[in-house]
Design brief:
There is one protein chain. With 223 residues, the chain is α/β, with parallel strands linked by helices. The protein contains 10 helices and 8 strands. The strands form 2 sheets. It has a 5-stranded mixed sheet. A 3-stranded mixed sheet has the order 3-2-4. A hairpin with a 6-residue loop joins strand 2 and strand 3. The chain is globular. The model has no long low-confidence stretch (mean pLDDT 94).
């Protein structure tokens, strides 16, 4: 069977965990700080809209936090670990072949699910995780993990998808990949982005078309 992966990613995980136990926070801007309360390590969508960036020191945005009554929390790793376990146990009900990638992400192998409508299955997963745990998730589906990551990003950033995007069913993949900046491809960091941009490679589609030997020479075997 051809490989098919679904990447399930919790939306704004730390902030969502705080909302599970305090529903009055729904719709309000939230930031979560590192263990020493030094830097912002998580933001709700409302906080992102205020221009608060990941990793910024708290003192630099303190006036902004106060002006907009942003709800500020210290990291609660015990809570986040417990909620992560609940999410992963829920996902196991849908797919026995589960690879936990991080505290808020997991890959599900859907190779044996080709008789199903995968987008509909993704919506069922999303609805069930929300109902059972209170955590909103996005689901991206594709034939490999890198493309599943891209599909998940599209699901998360495009309201029309309803939080689920099946790249396998996309009628014009080239047009879609042309709109994905190369830095949004899994594994392409700042240094690789700078190198690729210098050679005119700006999008995921352009990266796909690059000769493998060129990639090996400039990005190494991992690239």
């Amino acid at each position: 069977m051809p490989p098919i992966f679904a990447l399930v990613d919790c939306n704004n995980f730390y902030a969502s965990c705080e909302r599970v136990f305090n529903p009055r926070l729904e719709g309000k801007p939230i930031v979560v700080l590192s263990n020493n309360d030094g830097c912002v390590v998580a933001r709700s969508n409302e906080a992102k809209a205020l221009g608060i960036v990941m990793g910024v020191p708290e003192f630099q945005v303190r006036p902004l936090l106060r002006a907009h009554q942003v709800q500020v929390f210290s990291s609660n790793n015990t809570l986040y670990g417990d909620m992560s376990q609940r999410v992963m146990e829920t996902l196991e009900k849908f797919c026995p072949d589960l690879e936990i990638y991080s505290v808020d992400e997991a890959f599900l192998s859907l190779s044996g699910f080709t008789s199903r409508n995968l987008a509909e299955y993704g919506r069922t997963i999303r609805t069930t995780v929300k109902r059972w745990t209170g955590i909103p998730v996005s689901v991206g589906i594709a034939e490999n993990k890198t493309l599943a990551k891209i599909a998940n990003r599209i699901a998360k950033r495009t309201p029309d998808t309803g939080g689920v995007f099946d790249l396998l069913a996309c009628p014009d993949r080239e047009a879609l990949l042309c709109r994905v900046p190369v830095e949004d491809v899994w594994g392409i960091g700042r240094n690789h982005t700078r190198l690729l941009n210098q050679h005119g490679i700006m999008t995921a589609l352009q990266l796909r078309e690059v000769d493998d030997q060129w990639i090996r020479k400039h990005l190494g075997i991992v690239g």
